[in-house]
Amino acid sequence: MRIGELARRTGVTTRALRYYEEQGLLAPERSDSGQRRYAEAAVDRVRVIRELLSAGLSSKTIAELTPCVIDGRATPELLDRLAVERDRIGRHLADLARTRDRLDSVIAGAAATLHTGAPCRQDTAA
């Protein structure tokens, strides 16, 4: 498939797809006229790349982990690296959960003051 079709099917811009290629994350074949041609498997590959980017992994890290994460070939070193990334994501999730809980507490407190008419905070400006 051509780059425009891959972009439509994955919801990714053609510019992003070119960036993935520059970073070694995608490897399209080239037609005789130089146009990029992607295999059907590129759709899933782009989706995995997007998931990993959304999880906070850099394109460099994704390129390093591609043999294990995308291609299914693991070495002990790659598995260790994946565990490090998983643990980092776990810490980030825990931080987000604490932030969510704090916001829930603020929302609950603010909701209680709405019923009493008391202000949530007082302006200190005169």
Give the topology, please.
Layout: H1 3-10, H2 14-22, E1 29-30, E2 36-37, H3 41-54, H4 59-69, H5 76-116
Antiparallel strand pairs: 1-2
Model description:
The chain is mainly alpha-helical and 126 residues long. It folds into two domains: 1-73, Multidrug-efflux Transporter Regulator, Chain: A, Domain 2 (Orthogonal Bundle); 74-115. It is built from five helices and two strands. A two-stranded antiparallel ribbon has the order 1-2. Helix 4 crosses helix 5. The longest helix is centred in the C-terminal third of the chain and has 41 residues, at 76-116. Keywords: DNA-binding. It comes from Streptomyces boncukensis. Pfam families: MerR_1. InterPro entries: DNA-bd_dom_put_sf, MerR-type_HTH_dom, MerR_fam. Residues 1-68 form the HTH merR-type domain.
Labels describing this entry:
126 residues; Multidrug-efflux Transporter Regulator, Chain: A, Domain 2; single chain; 66% helix; 2 strands; 2 domains; mainly alpha; two-stranded antiparallel ribbon; DNA-bd_dom_put_sf
**Helical amount among residues, as a percent range?**
55-70%
Q: Whole-Å distance between the termini?
A: 65 Å
- Any idea of the CATH class of the largest domain? Mainly Alpha
The protein's oligomeric status is single chain
- What class would the helix/strand composition place it in? mainly alpha
Q: How many domains would you count in the coordinates? A: 2
- Cα Rg: 23 Å
Counted beta strands: 2
How many helices? The count is 5
Shape: elongated
Low-confidence stretches: none
CATH fold-level name of the largest domain: Multidrug-efflux Transporter Regulator, Chain: A, Domain 2
Reported CATH architecture of the largest domain: Orthogonal Bundle
| Helix/strand order, N-terminal first | HHEEHHH
Instruction: Walk across the major sheet and give the strand order.
Output: 1-2
Binned strand content: under 5%
Quick check: average pLDDT?
86
Largest sheet: 2 strands, antiparallel
InterPro entries: DNA-bd_dom_put_sf, MerR-type_HTH_dom, MerR_fam
Protein name: MerR family transcriptional regulator
GO molecular function: DNA binding; DNA-binding transcription factor activity
Keywords: DNA-binding
